[in-house]
Amino acid sequence: GENSVSVDGKCSDSTLLSNLLEEMKATLAKC
To answer: Exposed (0-12), middle (13-18) or buried (19+): which is 18, by Cβ within 10 Å?
Structure first.
C-alpha cells in the first residue's frame, strides 16, 4: 500500500511481510 514506505521500520516483521504481500498481489493484478 501507499503506507508501506512511511511505516517502514515502525512495524513488526509480520506487518512488513503483510504489506509486501499486498503490494505483490496488487502488482500481479495489474498484469
So the answer is: middle
